[in-house]
Amino acid sequence: MGQLLRVQNFNVSRDGFGAGEDQSLERPFGHADPGAMFAWAGATASWPMRTDPGGSRGLDDYFTRDYARGIGAEIMGRNKFGPQRGPWENLDWRGWWGDEPPFRTPVFVMTHHPRPSFTLSDTTFHFVDDDPAAVLERAKEAAGGKDVRLGGGAATIREFLDAGLVDTLHVAVSQVELGCGSRLWKSPDELLDRYHLDVVPSPSGVTHHLFWRR
């Protein structure tokens, strides 16, 4: 099938929002509570930030464990990288993840205000001002034959969907309502003209939506 552009483990509320409003340094997801949104993943044995032994196995753990499989590069929107807007006031901000980002691949951050690339541990961040197709081409080249993960946020995923570039999507729908924010969809049915869909409920309460191209 060649290299794929994959959305994996992207979380939305049951009313279709991937994040709330009023993002800030203290609240990366705005008024949304990430603990409630991502509880299903944080409870798994394979959760990468787990510090205690144990955790659940089964369906949710399968998706958490599969997150990095076959991925050679990531694309994300600027709001996933940080809360700043407009021109960079300084270059001290290097993402939410500290000195050991979880990506371990090249990461392409889409922004209208590029800045120099930098490397933290085994992750290199590149800042690109280009259309989705051109950014995907760069990411595929950097991925060295592996797939590219589209990490979000919702507006960035929607941009790539509307450009017809996404091959597969895994969206986890949590039983949380946000009412407003950054919306992925009003209903997953919006994508059924282009994608097949399997819907798989989990005992954790989250519902996994798996899309692949028709």
From TrEMBL:
What start and end residues bound the annotated signal peptide?
none
Can you tell which superkingdom this protein's organism belongs to? Bacteria
Q: Which residues form the Bacterial bifunctional deaminase-reductase C-terminal domain?
A: 32-184
What molecular function does GO assign, one term?
Answer: 5-amino-6-(5-phosphoribosylamino)uracil reductase activity
Biological processes per GO annotation: riboflavin biosynthetic process
Alphabetical list of Pfam families matching this protein: RibD_C
Which InterPro entries would you find in this protein's record? DHFR-like_dom_sf, RibDG_C, Riboflavin_Biosynth_HTPR
Q: What is the official name of this protein in its record? A: Deaminase
- Organism equals Streptomyces spectabilis
